[in-house]
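ok new one. same drill as before - structure tokens go in, u give me an amino acid for every spot. 464 of them this time. try not to just spam alanines like last time pls lmao
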């Protein structure tokens, strides 16, 4: 494709070369084995960012006793993740102008500094609390790059038949990190004796013992983040020497033109809201899952296992569905309809089970666990499919900008939900209804959405 005399003229040039283009100037494409190293480094950073973000929710009972936190404190610590998306335009601009390496290095720096600040072992609890909040805010600032750059990485490094799978891996590892915190936190940090089911009480657990265990876990997370930061600093190229596909080599819209086109595209807004509402609600809901399940007499450890398996199951199903989408292209809408229908049914089942005193539905541990895990499986697995559908819908808008907008909207929903939670944290049954309503809302939007595959057309037909 040709190049104009100015950026404005260049943007007006056709993305697809005319049929009489010179045959001796094709787009040469190649995939490199190092793409797996790049994907691994990015995914592991996402894993640790999600793990730090969800650190306090699974051990909120221990934090209340050892540090004097309240339920509102736990909600605010989770809220720092969405708050970190406030400067998302800056990160998207940096990625668009300087490449993924610059944006990821800045985000990894925030993660390293935040983990170091919250790990300072002060004895003065008020100051220690401020440092913990500051550390989680810095970790939240890494969110815009970590959560929205997966599709940009997959397009830049991977061939079309591996793109959805790479998007799934890069996008879902941050959720796997939050799942790991459901497992690591309750197993490494002892729960207070006053929590859990009424069984034979074990030996008393002192506040200092709980604080020591929490400190140990924070040191371990800081060490892993320091190693990953060093690895990214030493080797993380923004792009390969040659593009892996025609779409990766094609000209994209400018930063300003992309934002204007997204905000004026009704089809994009439909899918963006369909993604943002349920993903934002479940992010806030999962961050305080221990508080949600406490009225049902579910212990801190059991709540951790529920959160772990719901997220891990969603990530595994998401990768499997992405691999299916890579094999049979043009099926993204159908996959999303099936996932959102399952999420609507399972969230309704869970909500009514929690209200068994009114609905008189059977409320056993198996039913509660199964319905809760299915909610996470269906919603989390839809994330990479949403990303791929959004990019196909608005192509040639750059992937990083597209996903940056929708992840900002998702975190805005999550932030508003957590703000309400700081004021209404006594009875959380309303939070379950929000989850059910968000799934139904998303399902209706996708049912009325008209899909298109502009990027896929470019790769499949123009590359032939």
């Amino acid at each position: 494709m040709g190049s104009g005399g100015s950026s404005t003229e260049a943007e007006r040039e056709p993305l697809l070369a005319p049929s009489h283009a010179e045959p001796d100037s094709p787009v040469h494409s190649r995939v490199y084995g190092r793409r797996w190293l790049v994907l691994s480094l990015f995914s592991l950073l996402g894993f640790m960012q999600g793990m730090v973000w969800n650190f306090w929710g699974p051990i909120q009972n221990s934090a209340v006793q050892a540090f004097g936190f309240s339920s509102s404190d736990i909600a605010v610590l989770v809220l720092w993740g969405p708050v970190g998306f406030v400067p998302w335009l800056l990160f998207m601009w940096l990625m668009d102008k300087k490449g993924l390496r610059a944006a990821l290095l800045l985000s990894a720096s925030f993660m390293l500094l935040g983990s170091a600040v919250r790990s300072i072992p002060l004895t003065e609890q008020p100051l220690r609390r401020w440092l913990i909040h500051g550390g989680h805010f810095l970790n939240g600032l890494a969110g815009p790059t970590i959560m929205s750059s997966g599709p940009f990485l997959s397009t830049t490094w991977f061939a079309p038949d591996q793109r959805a799978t790479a998007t799934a891996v890069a996008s879902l590892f941050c959720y796997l990190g939050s799942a790991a915190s459901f497992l690591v936190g309750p197993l490494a940090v002892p729960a207070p004796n006053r929590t859990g089911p009424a069984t034979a009480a074990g030996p008393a657990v002192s506040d200092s013992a709980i604080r020591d265990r929490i400190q140990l876990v924070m040191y371990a997370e800081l060490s892993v983040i320091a190693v990953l930061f060093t690895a990214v600093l030493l080797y993380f190229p923004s792009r390969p020497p040659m593009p892996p596909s025609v779409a990766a080599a094609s000209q994209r819209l400018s930063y300003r033109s992309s934002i204007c086109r997204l905000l004026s595209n009704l089809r994009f807004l439909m899918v963006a809201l369909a993604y943002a509402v349920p993903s934002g609600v479940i992010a806030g809901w999962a961050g305080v899952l221990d508080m949600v399940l406490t009225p049902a007499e579910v212990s801190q450890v059991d709540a951790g296992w529920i959160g772990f398996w719901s997220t891990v199951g969603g990530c595994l199903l998401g990768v499997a569905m992405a691999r299916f989408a890579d094999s049979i292209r043009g099926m993204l809408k159908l996959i999303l309809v099936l996932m959102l229908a399952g999420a609507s049914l399972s969230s309704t089942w869970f909500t009514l089970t929690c209200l068994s005193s009114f609905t008189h539905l059977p409320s056993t541990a198996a039913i509660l666990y199964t319905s809760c895990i299915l909610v996470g499986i269906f919603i989390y697995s839809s994330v990479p499919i949403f990303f791929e559908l959004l990019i196909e819908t608005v192509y040639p808008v750059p992937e990083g900008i597209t996903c940056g907008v929708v992840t900002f909207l998702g975190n805005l929903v999550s932030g508003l939900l957590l703000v309400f939670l700081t004021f209404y944290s006594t009875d959380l049954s309303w939070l379950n209804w929000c989850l059910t309503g968000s799934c139904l809302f998303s399902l209706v939007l996708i049912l009325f959405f008209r899909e298109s595959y502009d990027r896929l057309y470019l790769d499949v037909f123009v590359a032939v």
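The chain has 23 helices and no strands. and btw Residues 1-25, 196-201 have pLDDT under 50 and may be disordered.
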